Amino acid sequence: MPDSQGPDTFVRIKVQASNAPVIVLSGLEDESLATAVMDGGAQDYLVKGQIDGNLLVRSLHHAIQRKRLEQALGESEEKLKTYL
User: Fold this and answer.
1) pTM attached to this predicted model
2) Structural domains for the chain
């Protein structure tokens, strides 16, 4: 990306579209970067040249499912707080 580094772009996306599931697709096989973006809320970290169509479809499917579950859990926690 000519205008930014991958982690910077990830942070901008998370701020601007916090409810969207994010899969990071990188040219680098970097475990520390993968850990950082996953800890930051990415749903997956994939490395270019190491994925095929099946892996991409599976990753997208699971990312959407996990994001929906995270949102449902957050809503349940908020409801629970109103009862406590």
Assistant:
1) 0.75
2) 6-83 (3.40.50.2300)
